[in-house]
Amino acid sequence: MMALLLALGSSLAYGCADFLGGLGARKAHVLRTVMVAAPASLTVELLLWPGLGASFEPGALGWGAASGVASAAAFALLYKTLAIGPMNVLSPVTALVSAVLPVAVGLLQGEHLSVAALVGLPLALAAVVLVSAGHGAGAARPARTALLLAFGAGAAIALQLVCLHQAPSGSGVAPLVIGRAVSSAVTLTAAGMLRRRLGPEKPAYAISAAAGVLDSVANLLFLLAVRSGDLTVVAVITALYPAGTVLLARGVLAERIHRGQLVGLGTAAVAVSLLALT
Hints:
This protein has helices at 2-27, 30-52, 58-84, 87-108, 115-132, 144-166, 174-193, 205-228, 231-238, 242-253, 259-275. By secondary structure, the protein is mainly α. The protein starts with a helix and ends with a helix.
């Protein structure tokens, strides 16, 4: 139950971070948003270090660095994917892949599913697709390149989560610190190399920093969840993060929640209830 609650918290934090990051990217080039969000995220994890501890053993360093590289790749592929569109088709593909791959890894590592989980996991995967799909998802057909990018983005997100799961359980927040330092270095280097293409607009500092803080909170909750539960369940619950984005868009931007998304939210509630029984 604790792992489930932590995973739900991680999902909500990821959804809120994506929402704020999207708002920030509307005001300036997305790399300008990251230039604010990344240091803010790293600062949070450094502040957590004294309280939660960190052991920079080889396993934590290696898996943490790998998660950082995967995180940077996920960021680049995701925004390239959404830029090509259509978002209402490609976003569910990315979310679904990011959920399915960790489930496969967990099962290969010997995790076993109860009867409730065997029913709840497919429902949760269906909810991921329904919640993240917008109105008229079947109206536009994405190009093959866009689909490949969507699969790549989902795989990179999944790889980040799997790497965090593989880090030694006694390493504290070391994998998060190393991962965020690596991903920050990669994205800031990219921003420096592309600075002439970023445009003159200034980033939304408060929104961008808040997105970075929430992303750190999401990573921490995910790490704690997989240390107390199964990757198969935690990864799928975490992949429900589009629900948080959809609800925030409804409350803040007055965006309409479509019928399919409402069905997805209901399906997610049923799936979480079943997984709570495992």
